[in-house]
Amino acid sequence: MTTLALPALLDGQHLVETFGLAGLLLIVFAETGLLVGFFLPGDSLLFSAGFAAAGGIPGVHPPLALVLLLVPLVAIAGAQCGFLIGRKAGPALFEREDSRLFKRSYVTKADEFIERYGEGKAIVLARFIPIVRTFLNPLAGATDISARTFFLWNCVGGVLWGVGISLIGYFLGHNQFIGKNLEVFALLIVAISVLPIAFELLKARRRRTV
Q1: How high does pLDDT run on average in the chain?
Q2: Which residue range forms the structural domain that includes residue 34?
Q3: Rounded distance between C-alpha atoms, residue 18 and residue 185, angstroms
Q4: pTM here?
Q5: Bridge-partner residues for 60, per DSSP?
């Protein structure tokens, strides 16, 4: 039972309950590999999957080992797909006009992220930031970042994100209070995951004002 009235596509628990592990993997791939998937709830989805693996969601109980194996693999594959799309299409991919789904500000944010943190760190940290983790991959492909560098750090980020957030959901899966307020805790996990980035941005802003 959730406590917030989120749209179905943004409700990680609802998506896990409805589509199971196969649907979860498709959504992870779409969010990390396809530009149209930027709005999907990756963090709360992984948290809910781990919670379900612990028996926290009635009727849905995917094996934890399978979740921890397949989610990182699909996350890595999705990001590689995004990278290849950017490599094939080039900068022209991001030169179209704004629409309901595409905003040039998304690309700008991803580009600034790479400039601020450098290639490797940006690829890893982007995993934990909605929208950035979608647009950074094709943007990296459209730049001069080498395929080898991207693949290495993509693997690191995919494992940290896919395994880390799923395990948090799993270890909290036997708590009844959390089960009754799963949506709130899923959103809390998302907020915590971006705290390091928020601190970095705050420090960068202070440096500019000094």
Answers
A1: 77
A2: 8-209
A3: 20
A4: 0.76
A5: 57
